[in-house]
Amino acid sequence: MTTWAYLDGEWVDARAPHLTLSTQGLQYGTSVFEGIRAYLPRAGGRPEPFLAEEHYQRFLRSCEALRIDLSLGCDALVEVTRELIARNGHDTDCYVRPVAFKRTLLPGVPFGVRLTGVGHGLALTSVAMPSRLARETRLGIASIRRVHDDAIPTRAKIGGAYVASALAVDECTGAGYDDALLLTAQGRVAEASTSNILARREKTVFTPSLDQGILPGITRRKVLEKARENGYDVQERPVEVNELFAADEIFLVGTGLEISPVVSLDGCPVGEGSAGILTQDLCRWYGSLVRA
Ligand code: PMP
Fold this sequence. Notes:
By secondary structure, this protein is α+β, with helices and mostly antiparallel strands. The protein has helices at residues 24-28, 52-65, 74-87, 162-174, 218-229, 241-245, 277-289, and strands spanning 4-7, 10-13, 31-33, 36-39, 48-49, 94-105, 118-128, 137-145, 179-183, 189-192, 196-201, 204-207, 233-236, 249-254, 258-265, 268-269.
């Protein structure tokens, strides 16, 4: 059975080779991407993309950062996503990966690394991916720092910036942790390899502010809204590592890992060393929200 991918307006076999070796996105990391989960609704049917509009708004902003002008808008991208899920016959939770990337130099453009004068491509693929909500994380602190916004725009989801995440994950998993916390260049808390970090101390929930060079996470925004609604004092501000060690609970939020309690940080138990009350509450709420 064919696994379909969308590539520049066509439906192609996802497993066939499609790119030339001179693709600049491959050579220089000049690509942008999103990760979108689709959940089987409680009422049944096909998996439904969760918060797809928000993801594609961020995707289009990321494209602008790399001077990629897609001919498709947000609604059309959501439509392609639905068709991909249907074509691939997904009947359980799945994950869709849109990627826009720099292809090859346009005729007459001299060889070299650049953004202008390079064509681009757009591809969407999908894979089955069960929920992993509430799975515990033992988080290590990586020596690799989060890329600084002065070097690569951190509000955009740019392929090349994930070299730092990959190095940090390798370092921390090699040391026996599940995931890596990356700090800012100033040594403050930034985010985990592919998720945002939040913590609670008593009735205060705190998380690094967007000026700390983090990705403006869609899950982060939703979860902060919910915490405010539930009466917590929510603070978005620079966060020192010491504050995490003094927290009652810490959790990670992101599309892929959904909500994950951090049970230890750099080997030290967080709170009771298991999911805290707020994390448990949020997991229950999120689990039902995604299938509503
Ligand atoms: N930070 C990074 C570096 C990420 O890759 C992700 C995953 N997209 C997040 C945070 C969480 O963002 P979101 O909730 O929008 O998935």
